[in-house]
Amino acid sequence: MTTIQAPSLSGPAQEDLSLEFRNRFSRVREEILKVIVGNSAVIDGVLIAIVAGGHVLLEGVPGLGKTLHVRTVAQALDLNYSRIQFTPDLMPADVTGTTILVEDHEGGRRFQFAPGPIFSNLVLADEINRATPKTQSALLEAMQEQSVTVGGKTHSLSPPFFVLATQNPIEMEGTYPLPEAQLDRFLFKLKFDRPSTAELISIIDRTTAAAQPPPSSVLSGAHLLEMRDFARLVPIAPHVAAFAAQIVTASHPGPAAPLTVSRFVRYGSSPRGAQALVLSAKIRALLDSRSSVAKEDIKAVAIPALRHRLVLSFEGLAEGITTDRIVEDIVKHVAIQTNVAASGQ
């Protein structure tokens, strides 16, 4: 795949750098839209997470294009891509690789590490909840440390490294729910919606007529790393950072939490939730042509950043409460509290 040589994100003019950031983001988005119909919020969420250096959990019923979405992202980016089909009999070595005995040209024998499919820039973990917890855990070190330890030796993964995992929310037979420690390593959890009638017609037109050309590769791994470094330089005011921290604090049952959290939540978000809020809000601010993070940016990314980090109580599960509703209540509660505190000063 060819790469468009975009200007570097290091230069004298902040506005020019921000414009180049938005242009790069838009070019990738346009290539994805040549293939994917609808779910624009998912497209933006995946790209924001990739620029932030995070992983994404994609949830939706079969046939909504989750795998196609990931493959299209890989085609629009000049990155090494691999797909792992998770099944109950998949073993950790099938993901990470293993040490094998090989014979050299002199007839001697030695152990050599054979890398698994995790050694790629963009990894699709398809139907991740179909593998056993033992195999799921093979991803933990890679997702957090960007390295893999096999046979007592640590092997680094080449940056950038992303895991985009898919799961089906309605089929429970033969699946193993992801543990909280694994869920917490995903920057975002994004949900695919069913297409509207108009979108379905467009899908039919694109997939039953002459074959469409694949998306062009418009961004390289080096460009993504530049964008990530630039996004981290976006300033965030202390009161906005405090707003993000208060949202995470209010996700735990206690005096700072709204009533719905106290009733329906067992455990709230970890500090990774606050990191996800701030990192993704910085990228959203850049995409909205602003030079600093606003509270509205934090609010906009709260649901995808926190929906998978809340553990509901038995009462919450029994009453069918969704974590999306809980996060909405938390954001409203914290916003009201901060407004009251600001008016009292």
Give descriptors for this structure.
Rossmann fold, 47% helix, 2 domains, alpha/beta, Helicase, Ruva Protein, domain 3, 13 strands, 345 residues
Describe this structure in words.
With 345 residues, the chain is an alpha/beta fold. The chain folds into 2 domains: 199 residues, P-loop containing nucleotide triphosphate hydrolases (Rossmann fold), CATH 3.40.50.300; 112 residues, Magnesium chelatase subunit I, C-Terminal domain (Helicase, Ruva Protein, domain 3, Orthogonal Bundle), CATH 1.10.8. The chain is 47% helix and 17% strand. It contains 15 helices and 13 strands. It has a 5-stranded parallel β-sheet with strand order 3-6-9-1-10. Strand 4 and strand 5 form a beta hairpin. The N terminus is likely disordered.
**The first-level CATH class name of the largest domain:** Alpha Beta
How many domain regions? Answer: 2
- In terms of DSSP E residues, the strand content is 15-25%
The first-to-last residue Cα distance is 58 Å
Global mean pLDDT: 87
Q: Percent range for helical residues?
A: 40-55%
The low-confidence parts are: 1-11
The tally of strands reads 13
